Amino acid sequence: MKKVGVLTGGGDCPGLNAVIRAVVRTSIQYNWEIIGIKNGWRGLVEGEMELLSDYSVSGILPKGGTIIGTSRTNPFKREGDIEKVLENIKKFGINALVAIGGDDTLSVALKLHTMGIPIVGVPKTIDNDLSCTEYTFGFDTAVSIVTEAIDRLHTTAESHHRVMVLEVMGRHAGWIATVSGIAGGADEILIPEEPFDIDEVCGHLKQRYDKGKKFSIIVVAEGAEPKHLGSLIFGSKEKDDFGHLRLGGVGHYIAKLIEERMNVETRVTVLGHVQRGGTPTAYDRVLATRFGVAAVELLKNERYGKMVALRGNKIVPVELEEAVSQSKKVDKELYDIAKIFFGR
Ligand code: F6P
Q: Domain check: are 12 and 95 in the same one?
């Protein structure tokens, strides 16, 4: 009998519980025991675990967040932590691990794999910036939330003849901004992949005004960079365990510049964690479920060091090493489609 540990690391994401449920249900078929490791890698450092049964995952499919908690703990950061991880794996009799997370969580999984720990990864992030998989679960839900926000901003923008700036998540890649911007008919989409020129943006807004469109919607990813500044705008100087500074503020920054240059009333909405909370869409529930089942099948076949991925409509195994080697940027082709509607 196998004892499998499952953990969720990094920012939470709609669909995490659907993966956990699928991992537990599939494992039960093989008579394996599933240990839920609490709060990501921190649970392995501190030895915080709970046994997951059929009963504990009942009813969690539509629930947002993660029933086992998450954290941004990096066990390779503090001296002695990785030894504690190895000790706890032994102490709790864990034979294999399922790590559900983004590039940070999965880069830890890769390191553990190279140290001989049997492990497989499941790609999670609302940002959709993990390589080797066409989609990560959570992304579709975030896009739906942002698209609804753009629709709602349209009616108030039009009524007040304002520019509305909507700041969305997307640290290294502007997938959420691009896809929801296309879906919601945004007039500007600013993403980390293409540093923006504020004069060009204002020039376009002016063209719209001259044509009689007295309002505009700008969607900006938190990691978008103004060309003239040449650096990211941060919400705080605090770094997490993986060295990431907290982003935020680019929306307010742009709004101020637009008001100064165009003398038009501008308002900012920062959607923040609303994009990550709540129930997953049907698409994310199904994708998360398929990923969870496929992860257990990889363990069954002892194919460790892999991540489950979506390619076409198939779930396939890819090398963890390849998946974490670089982040997946927005397709130039897709962004070019979005640009047709900017009119610049
Ligand atoms: O999940 C990834 C992400 O959504 C990033 O886009 C964002 O920078 C980050 O999470 C913020 O998360 P937290 O506030 O939990 O650190």
A: yes
